[in-house]
């Protein structure tokens, strides 16, 4: 009879011959018997073969705990021995034996405590299973986990670096206008998103503010985001109306090799004494909120379809005057579509938050970002970008 894999021929023969002693000695596991205080009184040949000890070196001369590594001895005294005494057994305890040559053998241990009729401990029976392959497998899993964590960390750093190239390094200083921006990537920031903002000057007291959202995430979305930003920077200089700039951007995206589209709100700001004339154009983007002193927040925007989807798309402008104390809040759909279970953050919650934080553009932008992130338990599912601008008092 051919023995099953892992079982010695002698053990199978002993099983067929029904030889209990040979079964004990040649069992495919280490077998020990100890006194209640741990002195070795019997060991099988399998255990001796594994460890390289002679029987006479162990029986009556060594304790079980003396065969363990320093860490194993500590665990034996603090966990193994007390558990055996209190519960009468231990199961699948992982320890390391120190072989006769000083090398170590990882083992899994099951043990039971025999008691006499009066309930007094009589002997401990210990079964040891060679855990070398299991330990190797666990180490491989640990290394794989460490490599995955390192790779994820590198991906996050790369995403963070790439995202930074898509955003201005700092909000601009605009004479006569307060400006603040806030951004939070989705999740833990491991993947670059498509939300972006930009602000730049095109003439004396003449500025352009852009907030947009390219569909999708990853490197391709980042490429399109960069294309959108640079296209708008190039075309707004020669085109007065935001709607015209969005029409050109629409054509650029249609002929680009990508099939990605975006939403954009573009605001051209021209100073007129103590006020600013704002011309807004939008391509499928959430309407900004206008906050005027003593009035509730109201949505204002030009209108138009998603950018990069339709041929000959038509965009319209909306003009308004920003007076002293007025503020304009721009945001991406990561704000209003922020989700907590089945509940959306929504327009009403956004207006309420904005109306409670009218103090400064920095307070407004930061409060909205913080509120929508907290609504999602600190783990937003989408990028969140907020821009606030206003005429100081």
UniProtKB/TrEMBL annotation:
- Taxonomy, superkingdom: Bacteria
UniProt xrefs under InterPro entries: Bact_Sigma-Reg, PAC, PAS, PAS-assoc_C, PAS-like_dom_sf, PPM-type-like_dom_sf, PPM-type_phosphatase-like_dom
Q: Enumerate the Pfam families for this protein.
A: PAS_9, SpoIIE
Pinpoint the PAS domain residues. Answer: 21-70
User: Which keywords annotate this record?
Assistant: Hydrolase
GO molecular function terms here? phosphatase activity
The PAC domain extends over 91-143
Q: Which residues form a coiled coil?
A: none
Q: Which CDD domains match?
A: PAS
Where, by residue number, does the polypeptide cross the bilayer?
Answer: none
PANTHER family named among the record's database cross-references: STAGE II SPORULATION PROTEIN E, STAGE II SPORULATION PROTEIN E-RELATED
Name of the featured protein: SpoIIE family protein phosphatase
